[in-house]
Amino acid sequence: MVNLIRKDIIALKWYWLFVLGYGAVFGLIARSPHSPLIIVMLPAIMLTIFVSNIELRNKSMLFIGSLPVKRSQIVRAKYASTFLYLTIGIAMALLMQLISRSFPDEVFTLNGFVLAIGTAVALLYSSVYYPLHYLLGPRNSSIISVIMIFLSSALAASLNKSIDLSRIALPSKLQVLIGLPLAGLVLLYVSYRVSLAILSRRDIEG
Q1: Are 128 and 78 in contact (CB under 8 A)?
Q2: In a domain, 206, yes or no
Q3: Residue 128 resides in a domain
Q4: Cα–Cα distance between 78 and 8 in angstroms, integer?
Q5: Cβ 62 vs Cβ 103: under 8 Å
Q6: What does the alpha-carbon distance between residue 174 and residue 23 come to, in Å, rounded to a whole number?
Q7: Phi/psi at 141 (nearest 5 deg)?
């Protein structure tokens, strides 16, 4: 499984610079109240799509399917990559927050609530994307993935705007901070089981 994740990391190549550049744009140049949330969650979404497009272009999944690799390892590697991409987004947001402290007039609010929403939305995206990817095939799922980016961004912005932690009592606040990522993890596990069931009954498509 580790080698499959390493394959995706190597395949991304210059896409890493694109993600870093986008983080710098939203974190330093085009900063807005939603910038911390965008930086946290979008790397997981963007890199997932980038890898799928690279695999489609290079036909790499056909090659992997010919190797002595279990279907469960292929699926598990994809879902494990979500946590790697999410960690990169969180690290970028923390870096932007440190840089923003050098500019007292600039506000970059990264808190537990932003991290909880960003984590939950990123996990939700992967939970929906991968079953569709394996069910519809990489060619058909690419269009859906673009639509899901806008829906995920709209959902995250709506949650960030509608829930005010300052008006929530401490127990409820902790429930929000813990409950959102936990719900995302539960959905991700259910999604993993669904994706594994789908791929075990289908041929691997390039």
Answers
A1: no
A2: no
A3: yes
A4: 9
A5: no
A6: 28
A7: -75, -20
